[in-house]
Specification:
The protein is built from 5 helices and 8 strands. It is of the alpha+beta class. Bound molecules: zinc ion.
Length: 158
């Protein structure tokens, strides 16, 4: 049986870099991506269930497991500034994903310079490895995706 850490490493190892021309980075590497615009995937390991407490979403709670949140940063701070915030445990809750990152046992990020977040979501859903975790999560501004929070199915099924 894979534990959360093994599953986490397996997702990163099994990631198909050939289609998405990006790279996995650790929290120590975010500075290199300051002012770099593009999309990112944030891998989130949850060891316990998290109550979302978001009124607009039908799903009230997220089970323990592995999740991938997909976003983009096209502002001045770029992907580096955005990820620095995601990696920070102590912050005011502003976005949907903040409720997960403050509870995560592990976080890692895939950065895709010049990438589009919805392209990344659609690609991942097509692989069959990823499924919608919470409908509408993080995709309030998005017309095309069912969600920007995916479950990593292949690695979290017991
Ligand atoms: Zn989208």
């Amino acid at each position: 049986m894979m534990d959360a850490n093994q599953a986490f490493e397996a997702v990163r190892a099994g990631w198909d870099d050939s289609i998405l021309e990006g790279t996995w980075i650790t929290p120590c590497e975010v500075e290199a991506f300051r002012r770099v615009k593009g999309a990112y995937g944030l891998l989130i390991a949850l060891e316990h269930a998290v109550v979302l407490n978001i009124r607009k979403l039908k799903t009230a709670c997220v089970e323990p497991g592995l999740y991938l949140y997909v976003g983009s940063a096209y502002g001045a701070g770029g992907i580096g500034a955005r990820l620095a915030r995601h990696f920070k445990a102590d912050k005011a809750i502003h976005w949907h994903v903040d409720r997960l990152t403050v509870e995560a046992s592990r976080l890692a990020a895939f950065v895709w310079p010049d990438g589009q977040e919805c392209t990344l979501v659609n690609h991942l859903l097509k692989t069959g490895v990823y499924e919608v975790a919470v409908a509408g999560f993080g995709s309030s501004d998005c017309q095309s995706c069912p969600s920007h929070l995916l479950t990593v199915q292949a690695h979290t099924k017991k």
